[in-house]
Amino acid sequence: MKFFSFWRSLASFRVRIALNLKNVPVDVVFVDLDANAHRDAEYRRINPQMALPALVEDDGTTLFQSLAILEYLDEKYPEPPLLPPPSDLAARAWVRGFALINIADSHPLIVPRVRHYFDDVLQIDEAAKLAWIRHWIEAGLAAMETLLAGHPESGDFCHGAAPTIADIGLITQVTPAKNFAADLAPYARVMRVYDCCMAIPAFADAAPARQPDAE
Ligand SMILES: N[C@@H](CCC(=O)N[C@@H](CS)C(=O)NCC(=O)O)C(=O)O
Predict the structure, then answer these.
(1) Which of 3, 151, 199, 207 has the fewest CB atoms lying closer than 10 Å?
(2) Nearest atom in ligand 1 to 8's CA
(3) What is this structure's pTM?
(4) 65 CA from centroid of ligand 1 (Å)
(5) 63 φ, ψ (degrees, to nearest 5)
């Protein structure tokens, strides 16, 4: 199985966590976003959206979009599960909803193609661009904090006693918050989950700075 990844890519980070938790071996193909390698014809054939990550099975089956890949891995390699059991439909929906705050709503607003559009088309200055990024990161963090406060099953993890895709989404919400120096003090519950997850080797080893292609 080939995994197309870039060290700083948050969507790749999400899938790396799942691969590590489930102990699935992959051949990692590094695609340098900074060099626009994701726009080359070679990678475009794999993912016409020109975004990372992508997962290619040995038979050529090609998967894209991190949430779809997370759920695929969870179905193919059920242990440890990344979702609550099918008997708890409401918990599964809560966990998916929580993860989507980052995966569907916050992260897409700060990806390189959006930032390039600001630079190249709208010609927004650096300060306004940073304000945009911090605004959407903090909006996601605030929603996560409020949801955790109202969710009795949260504590060390977003839901229950083990990581789920909700925690994976939380990690890739906090990571850019740290990179862009957002104030994390108001988000004590979020940061408790972040610290608990990052103490697990599967999470820590997936971190951007630990990847072989990291600068
Ligand atoms: N919703 C997608 C986002 C994929 C995505 O935008 N990936 C970023 C890296 S984290 C990327 O490759 N961006 C390239 C670009 O914006 O040009 C997912 O979760 O897989």
Answers:
(1) 199
(2) 10
(3) 0.98
(4) 8
(5) -115, 145
